[in-house]
Amino acid sequence: MATPKRPRQTGVPLFWALLTGVERITQLERSALEEKNYLVLERLHLSKRAEFARMHVLGERLGLNRSLPELRKRLEALEHLEQANLRDAQLAVAALGEELKGLAAEAQNLRSFRDAYAGEPNSSEFQALG
Description:
By secondary structure, the protein is mainly α. Helix content is 82%, strand content 0%.
């Protein structure tokens, strides 16, 4: 039975620091979703993508994989949180879509009201009758 390759030690602390950073950003995304702070959420998501890409490249270079129990455990927890964040983000997008539809209908009603009453009054017609 082949044993998993031992990762080279150079760069391993950086890998773990990057993983910790990705975990922290994912937790911050969770908070931003709960607070409906979508501007912060966008910045966090972009930052996390960059950190995760760096972590992934470094992990491959070092020969790290899920055969390491601590890495497997942390990645599974991270994936679980990512799935929850994705689910909640999809629900938020759907809710915002419904809100936008309602606002569009309300805006149309206001435009119609404005158009009906913002024009010149027809008072001259009433004077002619009197």
